[in-house]
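Response regulator
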Amino acid sequence: MAKTILIVDDSASIRQVVSIALKGAGYEVIEAKDGQDALSKLTGQRVHLIISDVNMPVMDGITFLKNVKTRPEYKFTPVIMLTTESAESKKAEGQAAGAKAWVVKPFQPPQMLAAVSKLVMP
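Tokens:
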């Protein structure tokens, strides 16, 4: 059975690039345009990994991550932050909130897929 990955990014083009790479590697993909949209799509189904942007309107990635970690069914779901943000303070904030990896845009799909395959839940 294919593993499901949630992509959260306000950029449709980034969601598309990530989605194509993941689907090509055999994953199921759920897309959300911001943290609020993503939370509304987490309805108890199994999600093996979340890839989230940091800077988004409505609800940013760090706030979204903190919300996800309060939900028992997603508490242990690994999260990769995919962002233009490279400041160490932001990375530290992301790690404190529970991010497992930090990939800076622009990224190479193989680099992202390598992080995904390491972190995706069994």
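The beta strands are 4-8, 28-32, 49-52, 79-83, 101-104.
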